[in-house]
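Q: I'm writing up a methods section and want to include an example of the input and output format. Could you take the sequence below and give the corresponding predicted structure tokens, formatted cleanly so I can copy it straight into the document?
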Amino acid sequence: MATVTELKAVLKDTLEKKGVLGHLKARIRAEIFNALDDDREPRPSLSHENLLINELIREYLEFNKYKYTASVLIAESGQPVVPLDRQFLIRELNAFEESKDNTM
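A: Here is the clean output for your methods example:
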């Protein structure tokens, strides 16, 4: 019969392999940040440059499926919840888009 320690280890390994444990940790972290966030303290306004930089970071995080990390970025930075239009970003950054895979 398996011991409690062995059962815990198997359960932890299973949750890690399925990616559930990472999502739970990220979600808990995000909720802690939200709970600690002081709404009374006003955030500095986002400069145009920081708005663009944050949007690029958000795109990177969402591309790599770091959705909870992206939600913390949005909450802490004051970035608009609705992503900026991709064509707007391309124009602002003087970039071009590869048509076959939608990368800049």
